[in-house]
Write a structure and sequence with these properties.
Blueprint (H helix, E strand, L loop, with lengths): L25 H6 L1 H5 L1 H7 L2 H7 L4 H12 L5 E6 L6 H6 L4 E8 L2 H10 L2 H7 E5 L12 E7 L7 H14 E12 L7 H4 L1 H10 L3 H6 L2 H11 L4 E9 L4 E8 L1
Parallel strand pairs: 1-2, 1-4, 2-3, 4-5
Antiparallel strand pairs: 5-7, 6-7
Bound molecules: S-adenosylmethionine (SAM).
Length: 253
Amino acid sequence: MITDSMSPLSAKSNNKQKFSPYALPDYLVKHYWWAYLSPLGVNFFDHGFMVNRILWGNYHAIAQDAVNVIVSQSAQKVAGISSAYGEFYPNLAQQRQVDNLYLFDIAPIQIKQMQKKIPRHIIEKKCQLFVGDAEHIALTKQSVDTSVLFFLLHELPKAVRGNVLAQAIGITKAGGRLVIADYAQFKGTHLFHRNKLFRTIFESVEPFLANFWGCDLLSEIKEQANVQRRTIKLTHEQYYFDGFYRLLELTIE
Ligand SMILES: C[S@@+](CC[C@H](N)C(=O)[O-])C[C@H]1O[C@@H](n2cnc3c(N)ncnc32)[C@H](O)[C@@H]1O
């Protein structure tokens, strides 16, 4: 299932891998080192209540709804395209409808952190946690039922976003799904969209958010699917916090 030499960091391994076989991307090192690469940042942010504050009290609902969407189908092979803070993946991994969870992140520290959060017997039974790049996903083409992008896309430069979407589509089986939780498109109606001070704060902490807000995500996904001669259909959408965040389920043929 894992297609190249990335060694899965399962609970059985000695976890001696300290260095990423990939160079960390510039956008991550330059803009997000404090949140995802620094041990202090990881310890500080990786708590459900912290992520819930960052998402203005909406984290638990979004995370639970995303799990519910994924487990609405049984016997799921799920790809977690980058790690996430809080209990989303540990909760998902423990669902009986999830047969396998292939969860990777480009930062080794994130994988080590995830190993601490998912119970050992669950990792041994059905998880592969490994260091990997979402722009070059080390999973077989059309091998998973569901690919999950949990608040990753808004943190990526536009070109990287396109590559990641292409990869996510590529690894997902015909009849499988993309599940995406992230900021909703900018409509200019939410207070945080209208108010310049809020916009400035958001955009200084999240340098790629303005582009993400302004993009037509569904069109971008369809474009990437077309290139692969696949088709995409939006099968579920849910909005939070007056349309500030959204959860999407897209079925891929
Ligand atoms: C999923 S997003 C964060 C989501 C949100 N802030 C949360 O924790 O719920 C952040 C993760 O993406 C990872 N990441 C960024 N670019 C990546 C890439 N190209 N490949 C794999 N992981 C990547 C970072 O290392 C980080 O762990």
